């Protein structure tokens, strides 16, 4: 091992459930994002999820009705901030779907006693020099809820989503955890239990990342140990262009 804290050598101060899931699904993508700082641009779908959560939280905090007008305004503002082309067909499609998403969430997201929204939580593994940090969408009394919006209703949570919820369960072991999915037409709620295997996965992969980083303090040498699949849809636009400068120079 080059250092007792290889994360420090690579300027990484924390891990997250998202970064751990990225390492599992696409290690070169993880290298590009977390060692070279190459970020993929946010799409209108991601903005849709963010503003729906924000307006829902406002409904709880203000003890008021779901503000559909604010939903539209925040969506356009967030798209502008993210440099997303407001004239794009996909953006218009997302904007038109907001009302239906909002109606489903307003009618069926019926939890009570909200205690926090977008709460930052931290888990420290023994012998790990940095923590794992994440943000809980909605924390109610004895219940943690993560809101997912999608155009298609999933049959069941993904492995990545199970690991994400396992992390929240580690932060609040006495709380029940729900994944609440909403489409423009329907909703589905999964109360997740028996997450111990996913908790073990989070810890195991965190130490795998540490071992990977310990091989070299040189990020280019670390990058040379893996290679991206540029045929994957995950590699696109600016991220793909910048990544090729690393792996194809």
Percent of residues in helices comes to 40-55%
Shape: globular
Q: Helical stretch count?
A: 10
C-alpha Rg (nearest Å): 20 Å
Largest sheet: 5 strands, mixed
**Class based on secondary structure composition and strand pairing:** alpha+beta
| Series of secondary-structure elements, N-terminal to C-terminal | HHHHHHEEEHEEHHH
- List low-confidence stretches: none
Count of strand segments: 5
Instruction: Measure the end-to-end span.
Output: 28 Å
Mean pLDDT: 94
Strand order of the largest sheet: 1-2-3-4-5
β content, as a range?
A: 15-25%
Features:
single chain; 249 residues; alpha+beta; five-stranded mixed β-sheet; 5 strands
How does this structure look, described?
The protein has helices at 6-9, 17-25, 27-34, 44-62, 68-81, 89-108, 159-171, 196-214, 219-223, 237-247; strands at 114-123, 132-140, 143-149, 176-182, 187-192. The protein is 49% helix and 16% strand. The model has no long low-confidence stretch (mean pLDDT 94). With 249 residues, it is an alpha+beta fold. It has ten helices and five strands. The chain is globular and about 55 Å long. A five-stranded mixed sheet has the order 1-2-3-4-5, with helices on both faces. β2 and β3 form a beta hairpin.
Brief overview:
The protein is α+β, with helices and mostly antiparallel strands and 249 residues long. 49% of the residues lie in helices and 16% in strands.
Please render the helix and strand layout as text.
Layout: H1 6-9, H2 17-25, H3 27-34, H4 44-62, H5 68-81, H6 89-108, E1 114-123, E2 132-140, E3 143-149, H7 159-171, E4 176-182, E5 187-192, H8 196-214, H9 219-223, H10 237-247
Helix pairs in contact: 2-3, 2-8, 4-5, 4-6, 5-6, 7-8
